[in-house]
From TrEMBL:
InterPro entries found in the cross-reference section: KR_dom, NAD(P)-bd_dom_sf, Sc_DH/Rdtase_CS, SDR_fam
Keywords assigned by UniProt, alphabetized: Oxidoreductase
Source superkingdom: Bacteria
Organism for this UniProt entry: Candidatus Mycolicibacterium alkanivorans
Ketoreductase domain location: 7-191
Protein name: SDR family oxidoreductase
SMART domains: PKS_KR
Pfam families, alphabetized: adh_short
Length: 270
């Protein structure tokens, strides 16, 4: 894939799934890659794969919710590679449970990782991206940042917030004439470990939920990574990943809030 040679790309949550696939694809395309995750085993595997390709790589344990550590990390990446062109705020967690039975701490945890992690990553790298003269912020939302479903209020909130934050940032960068492009990514079901890593409200069967997710997820992470990077290369404001994401986006745009009624029978079965 063209457009990434010589660029320095930063990826959070790079030890698994979409983040790992993005790291490998960026490495193959000639980018230098700074990868991080809380899962150091998964991260080591991604590092190995990048080294095998011959891509310059810097791997660090980083929890995206730890703002001070994130700031120090951003400065260390700039120091190491001399510049930073792209940041992919990808790290995320999932949680299932109706609002009625969900604890405050469960909602806060999802917001901390899925929303504040994205804000932290954007803010600490933004000065470096502007300085690079050719920057790009790529924030991973979800189709659940386009419409809501029962049992996903916490995740929906975080992913809608990522979309709001990122769409505003894109307009700000254009208005300020900063050399930073901004893309929001909305994946549909991607075949990763996200549901197996998820937590659920008391009384829900985590294994059964993960299994039903695994049968529904249509797109392999490698394909998702190629779609995302193609959107980045074309400076798309919004990237929809997978046929399910495209269909659901269309339904929401055509029906407005009517999607809630329309999707009720399907959501009931899930
Ligand atoms: N898989 C899907 O169907 C799907 C759909 C829409 C959006 N997404 C989003 O894509 C992104 C990647 O998810 P994935 O499907 O590859 O899941 P995954 O579970 O395979 O990978 C997520 C990675 O994030 C890491 N992580 C979790 N908490 C972290 C923290 N506090 N700090 C740093 N790293 C942390 C995990 O250790 C893991 O390696 C997430 O933001 C997710 O919400 C996924």
């Amino acid at each position: 894939m063209q457009g990434f040679a010589g660029k320095v790309a930063v990826l959070t949550g790079a030890g698994s799934g979409i983040g790992q696939a993005l790291a490998v694809e960026l490495g193959r395309s000639g980018a230098s890659v700074a990868i991080s995750d809380v899962d150091t085993e998964g991260l080591a595997l991604t590092e190995e794969r990048l080294k095998a390709i011959g891509a310059p790589v810097k791997a660090n344990r980083l929890d995206v919710t730890e703002r001070e550590a994130f700031q120090a990390y951003a400065d260390a990446v700039k120091e190491h590679f001399g510049k930073v062109n792209q940041v992919y705020n990808n790290a995320g967690i999932a949680y299932s449970g109706d609002v009625e039975v969900t604890q405050f701490k469960d909602i806060e945890r999802v917001m901390d990782v899925d929303f504040w992690g994205v804000v932290n990553g954007t803010k600490v790298f933004l000065p470096h991206l502007i300085e690079s003269g050719d920057g790009h912020v790529v924030n991973i939302s979800s189709v659940f940042g386009l419409f809501s479903v029962p049992g996903q209020a916490a995740y929906n909130s975080a992913k809608f917030a990522v979309r709001g934050f990122t769409e505003a940032l894109r307009q700000e960068m254009i208005r300020a004439k900063h050399p930073v492009k901004v893309t929001t990514v909305h994946p549909g079901g991607i075949q990763t470990a996200i549901a197996r890593n998820a937590t659920v409200a008391e009384g829900l069967d985590q294994a059964a939920l993960a299994q039903s997710f695994d049968t529904l997820a249509m797109t392999p992470p490698e394909k998702a990574a190629r779609i995302i990077l193609d959107g980045v290369r074309r400076n798309r404001a919004r990237v929809l990943v997978g046929p399910d994401a495209k269909i659901l986006d269309l339904i929401v745009r055509i029906t407005g809030s009517g999607y809630q009624r329309l999707l009720r029978p399907i959501m009931g079965r899930l």
